[in-house]
Amino acid sequence: MRFLFIIILLLNFCTVNLAAQDTLNRSVKDTLRFSGQLSAWSNYNHSNDLPLWFGGRYLPQSNYDLIFPDGKLVDFEVSANMSGSAGFHPFDSGHVGGSVRPYRAWVRYSTNQFELRAGLQKINFGSAAILRPLMWFDQVDPRDPLRITNGVWGILGRYYFLNNANIWLWTLYGNDDAKTWEIGATSQRYPEFGGRFQLPAARGEAGISFHHRLADTTGIGDSLHDFSGIPEDRIAFDAKWDLGVGLWFEGAWIHKNKDVGVLTNQLILNAGTDYTFGIGNGLNVVFEQLLIAYDRKPFVLSDPVFFSALSLSYPLGIFDNLSAIVYYNWATNESYNLVNWNRQFNRFQIYVMGYWNPEVYMLPQQQDAGNLFSGRGIQVMLVYNH
């Protein structure tokens, strides 16, 4: 229903503005574009109950722009996520599934220093690259070549000052599933809201972010802590500097205003660095360290969990790139490993990925990857953009 409402809203808005265009003696320029991304993949993992998988995804997208003489812009984007997969245990069993969902559906008004965007959209920010405490509204996996992530329904406003500082304000409503790092779903009767202020800082930038929602912990853990409508506040600070090497820090504190045991407070901290070494065509190295702690009391590190992440990327030539990413869980002494070779053609890309992960998949922030990428295996992906 929300998707249909957005489509009707966009069509009505286009009609009004096209009529306005005629009154302006055709001084308003408009463009309509169609594009899309088609991907197909196959995966073999002998550790899975269904070791052989095939799948595909199509992301059709349309964009419409209205450009006014004074530099103002009204634009629209509508896209869908159409995916399907089939898993087999040869000569034994199989599974087939698929879905069609809205991917993006928003309308935006913008000027040189201001923008207001409403609808199903991607909202992300912060300084970290891999293990991101500020991944509040997206689920981007740095190992995913397509960077697929669901959007959120809401309204986002941003104002950009002349000194490159900027302020964000948002309100969200109607997002059913728990988002990254959230414990418990969000109450569907009340909107979420928050904001962010970002400014230049020495040879980099820094930001402070805030978000408020009502959480529902029903069915999570001890039944004595089953509550609905719990006020939850989160506040975060992040900064990034270019000092010859890239350095950043990102931290978030999430507090529930009711006692739900050790889930009352979450503390998530990240520190990272990156540098490109002058080896051959240039070896880019990114390292991050993540700390996660939960406790009844705020800022108590009674039983923290540590994750490390190392990412390497090396261009083999103009069209080929080799990369690897390793996660390490210090609590279980387990590592998650992925190696990826990709080649770029005119409109095509091919990826060959090999992975070696624990059988029990316990990476933070990942949603469904563990179902397919636990254990050892290989995946081949072909992507076509039009």
Corresponding CATH architecture: Beta Barrel
Query: So what's the CATH class?
Result: Mainly Beta
- Measured between the Cα atoms of the first and last residue, the distance is 29 Å
The major β-sheet equals: 18 strands, antiparallel, barrel
E-strand count: 19
Write the element-wise H/E pattern from the N-terminal end onward. Answer: HEEEEEEEEEEEEEEEEEEHE
CATH level-four homologous superfamily name: Porin
Arithmetic mean pLDDT: 89
Indicate the structural class.
mainly beta
Q: What's the tally of helices? A: 2
Q: How would you describe the overall organization of this protein?
A:
By secondary structure, this protein is mostly beta strands. It has a single domain, classed as Porin (Beta Barrel), CATH 2.40.160. It has 2 helices and 19 strands. Residues 3-11 and 13-25 have low confidence and may be disordered.
